[in-house]
Design a protein that fits this description.
Helices cover 32% and strands 29% of the residues. Strand 3 and strand 4 form a beta hairpin. It contains four helices and four strands. With 123 residues, the chain is an alpha+beta fold. The chain has a single domain, classed as Tetrahydropterin Synthase, Chain A.
Length: 123
């Protein structure tokens, strides 16, 4: 059994305010360093004639596109719903599952505050 994890690092602007930070008088953070991790699994017998399961070059371009999309503008401008890390991680899983067979999980690691949010198939 194989598990492949790919990652992209980018700067994100969530665009939400933190009531806890406001109450304590701390200045709100506006930009976060985020590492997106995407993993998929497959068995030995799923390798093709070139000894690959999927073309990772194609996946690299796909992950670059999503990383660029998530760093282009504040998430409050990108999403119609409140863009919590939970919401965006689930959304990203749903988007990528259409392109990546046997997607295991997607995670967004907010390195700025040290919190990782992961979403995996609920089945």
């Amino acid at each position: 059994m194989f598990k492949v994890e790919m990652r992209r690092r980018f700067e994100a602007r969530q665009g939400l305010t933190s009531p806890a930070w406001q109450a304590s008088g701390r200045k709100p953070l506006t930009t976060f360093t985020v590492t997106m991790r995407v993993a998929f699994e497959f068995s030995d017998d799923q390798l093709d004639g070139d000894e690959r399961f999927i073309d990772t070059d194609t996946l690299e371009a796909l992950l670059d596109d999503y990383a660029n999309q998530l760093s282009r503008t504040a998430w409050t401008e990108t999403f119609d719903h409140r863009p919590t890390f939970e919401y965006v991680t689930c959304w990203l899983y749903q988007q990528l599952s259409q392109h990546i067979p046997q997607l295991s999980y997607v995670s967004l690691d907010n390195e700025t505050i040290g919190v990782t949010t992961a979403y995996s198939n609920p089945a």
